[in-house]
Amino acid sequence: MADVARRAGVSSQTVSRVSNGHPGVVDTTRRQVLAAMKELGYRPNSAARALKRGEFRTIGIITFSLSTTGNVRTLEAIATSAAQHGYATTLLPVAIPTQDEVRGAFTRLGELAVDAIIVIMEVHLLDAATVSLPPNVGVVVADSDAGDRYSVVDTDQAGGAREAVRHLLDLGHETVWHLAGPEESFAAQRRTDAWRATLQEAGRDVPAPLRGDWSAESGYRAGLRLAQEPDCTAIFAANDQMALGVLRALHESGRTVPDQVSVVGFDDIPDSGSFVPPLTTVHQDFAEVGRRCVEGALRQIGSDAEERGTTLVPTRLVIRRSTAKPPAPVG
User: Fold this and answer.
1) End-to-end Cα spacing for the chain
2) What 3-state DSSP class applies to 250?
3) Based on CB atoms within 10 Å of each CB, which residue in 107, 216, 251, 261 is the most buried?
4) At what angle do helices 240-252 and 216-226 cross, to 10 degrees?
């Protein structure tokens, strides 16, 4: 630091203020110091700064799966938002969804020195008293129903599903068939519950839901079954990947979309507008979810108060060409 100060012609205190991102340094001086740092190859010692400040400028992230679109996009949004606030992120994927694995992930993050933790996983594994959270580390949970125990940020899953089903009913379909996500998924369960409640409120028959695993292949298998249901004119798939499989199955079975069957997905992945036909779907604002997760984590850093409650990020229906009025009755 002394070498940088001599090269830049400033005090060591000024170098410290620049390396710590202090706003009270004029731009010309800041540029001189940064240039001297670059010339000398100086890098601030983050470990020493952490000991001095009592914070590590790092947010830990625990997640089960990196194979689902929702988790990957939420993770990307969290990392981007954290970086904008000057925080690094440390990711610990949990390979097997067991209590020991979750407990071990919390322990490892405590050893890696993080200021807060964001959890993207099924919350029932956080319920047991055997999970020991690192002391003085705030926790935010994405996509769960644990608002009575943690600070939770979630997409309005139920609101999005209701809008999707109402759209199909408003087009004139008698009922809506549903391809649900995995049973262990809270998001899938909320979408299924909203689908069922919307049909019941409208006085419509509720077909038995089919179950997929979020993949296009599971959507394809379910789509082949639905293609054999002559009364099936509208399908709400719990995510866009399964909707993609449904579209393929309907095409191969000679059921045209949307002339004979309308299909709605959920997520609005970047490619959904390029499906054949372009997919009507529920848009999730993953960037906003990530931003609010990080903001919730930052509020808890250095605070003794535990935050609880759920923040819902609104969804919106994106209407494309995979939905239309049902076919006219024959005869």
Assistant:
1) 87
2) helix
3) 261
4) 40
Report the relative pairing of strands 280-283 and 316-318 from DSSP bridges: antiparallel
3-state helix, strand, coil in the chain (%, to 5): 45, 15, 40
Tokens 């590590």 found at = 56
Q: What are the pLDDT digits (tens) for 267-306?
A: 999 999 999 999 999 999 998 999 999 999 999 887 766 7
- Residue 247: CB atoms within 10 A of its CB come to 26
Pairing of β 138-142 and β 88-93 = unpaired
191: left (phi over 0), alpha (psi -120 to 50) or beta: alpha
Please provide the size of the chain in residues. Answer: 331
For 116, the 3-state DSSP assignment is strand
29 compared with 206, residue with greater pLDDT? 206
Q: Token pair 């993207």 is at which residue?
A: 120
Q: Considering the entire predicted model, what is its pTM?
A: 0.80
Give the closest residue to 285 by CA, choosing from 28, 70, 99, 131: 70
Residues 6+ apart with CB under 8 A from 52: none
Mapped onto helix, strand or coil, the DSSP state of residue 139 is strand
DSSP letter at 182? -
Structure tokens, 124: 């029932």
Cα separation, 194 vs 209, in Å, equals 13
Summarised one tens digit per residue, pLDDT across range 61-115 is 988 766 677 788 889 999 999 999 989 999 888 877 666 777 777 777 767 778 8
